[in-house]
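ESCALATION

Customer reports they have been waiting on this structure for their group meeting. Please prioritize. Original submission:
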Amino acid sequence: MLALLFVAGAASPAGGRAGGAASSAFGVKVVLPGQAAVTVGEVSAPPKGAFSTPSFQYPADGSAVTTGPLDATTSATSGTAAAAAAVSSLSIFDGEIVAQTVSVSARASAGPATAQGSVGGSGLAGLTVLGAPVASPTANERLTLADWGYVLLLEQGSVPSPRYSGFVTALDVHLTRDHGGLPAGSEILVGRAEASAEVAAPPPAPKPHPAGTPAKAPDELPLVPPAYRTIPTITPPLGETGYIFPIWGPAGFSDTFGAPRTLTWHHGDDIFAPFGAPALAVADGIVFSVGWNKVGGNRLWLVDRKGNEYYYAHLSAYAPVAVDGAEVKAGTVLGFVGNTGDARGTPFHLHFEIHPKGLLSLGYDGAVDPTSYLRTWKHLTGVGAFVSSSFEPGAVLLQATDISSGNGLEPGSLARAFAPLSKAGEVALLAGTRLPVAPGSAPPPPTTGAVGGHD
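Update from on-call: job pushed to the front of the queue and completed.
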């Protein structure tokens, strides 16, 4: 009769991992051809687990295996794993194989560049096989069991860095003929421990490109075929603080991430705002892939200091700072809201995406739902709330639909184009911004009803 006592935790499914580390162990396993294995003391990590029983026997009469106390433990934390098993008073086939104690252990750890481990410390004490004592068992030693099988002692192996994986089994009995009530092909394993750890993948090469943009921007990569495409459902922490909402001033959005689109799905949220509203850098970082494509129109990318990437699309225009390789602070004006690209004819908005560093291997389809992030980021609305140097020299346009009436050959034309029109909402200019002034001429009159500005 089998008595079991779980002393800590429960076994998790094989293959579980904690920060690149995993371990497993068991006390005894009996495998019969064509039948499910019978295992006692099986635990794995993560999570941390332990098992203990005062005795074990198989089958009910103990004719194949009997033991005294049996224990197994496992643990796995980020980059480190360990496993151990111990069996006392072992007897197989009514004393044909006996051992006072069986003990196995395995360890693994991984640093930034290498992984290593060991199965040292495993041993068999008081081992006797077919009446002959085995004083000093050696690793992977094989002993013949008369004409009915063989046994492997301290069977072990390992795979080296960058992913170390090691195992040890104290006794592995194989039957080549029927014996002791078990059929040929049966196997009895006693004392098993495994541990593995993996070197973390190096961070991707930073996206800053002072010497030029990548050959292809992330949004220009081929879409994943529909049969293989999945929409990420996670919102991992980005690892930074002080994030800024990507639009200055009044703006509204709803969660449209994952909504169907032609041949694909919506990779971000649309943030609706007045035409020309400033689009701000959400974090300190570097601008790259500034330019046009037929879907995003005027678009750009920002990579933050942690390697996360952010996509801005449908801009009406760029701020002077928006050049490849430019280093910017959170709140810097990068461009202005519009409806360029495939958004032509729709209400003015910014299409905004978040691509966490850990999902960049998925290409453009590594976007996550930005909604929960946007709801918590600081939304700037006050005068002078964004980095003024980002639009020096130049002007920030708000609610402007057309300045094509400006003719540089006609004196005063540009000033009239930027002046407020009688039709409400067509043109406005942040007060205090600088316009070109011809030598000897007076500056254009200040606009009325402007939101304010900062030069």
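Sent to customer with the following note: The longest strand covers residues 97-110.
Escalation resolved.
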